[in-house]
Write a structure and sequence with these properties.
The chain is mainly β. The protein has 1 helix and 14 strands, in the order ββββαββββββββββ.
Length: 193
């Protein structure tokens, strides 16, 4: 497996990204974690990496191959910030080299304050946001006062798309916004109903 790891929004190669590779057999395990560490590599000054391992011993049973990335002040997803991708092992493609490029996002925070000072008439309030191919959200039941703040991880220095809506019982309010949080900073966003 070869490729590059790049920064957003610059698209420049990231040096010093540690990529870790894992194998997980098919099925679910409730009491144990059957994931096996395969190895790691680090990107060079251009963000390029190269990783080889013999998949023959893994392909007979199927399963999954995953990659994680680690670099200070960068992340990928909001749940497990280091998980990049999961591949289904296919025995027909064993030990065939391929190119896989990855993008990492500059870390920033989005703090959202939800305020409904009177008992609301709507059934639910839904909030979601997205950056790159990643999205996240939350819903609140209506019929009550709301005053709460939630912190979300988002990407810095690129557009984050925000949308919220309050619906039900004759209420139909929605809004879409675009914000840009600076790298390492916190963007404050307020929803008042």
């Amino acid at each position: 497996m070869t490729g590059r790891v790049v920064d957003t929004p610059s698209n420049a190669g990231l040096q010093g990204v540690e990529l870790r590779f894992f194998y997980r057999p098919p099925g679910f395990a409730l009491l144990t974690n059957p994931t096996r560490y395969i190895g790691k590599t680090t990107t060079n000054s251009n963000g390029a990496y190269n990783f080889k391992f013999d998949k023959t011993s893994f392909s007979a049973n199927g399963g999954y191959f995953s990659v994680q990335a680690f670099k200070n002040d960068y992340f990928y997803g909001f749940l497990n910030q280091n998980d990049l991708i999961v591949f289904d092992l296919d025995s027909t493609h064993v030990n065939v080299p391929f190119i896989q490029n990855f993008v990492l996002f500059r870390a920033a925070k989005l703090t959202v304050r939800f305020v409904a000072e009177t008992v609301t008439n709507f059934e639910f309030l839904t909030f979601s946001y997205s950056y790159g191919p990643i999205g996240n959200g939350i819903s609140f039941p209506g019929g009550r006062k709301i005053d709460t703040m939630i912190n979300f991880q988002t990407a810095g220095d690129i557009s984050t798309f925000v949308q919220w809506e309050a619906k039900g019982n004759g209420v139909n309010i929605s809004k879409k916004d675009t914000i840009i949080a600076t790298r390492g900073g916190t963007y404050q966003y307020k929803i008042s109903l």
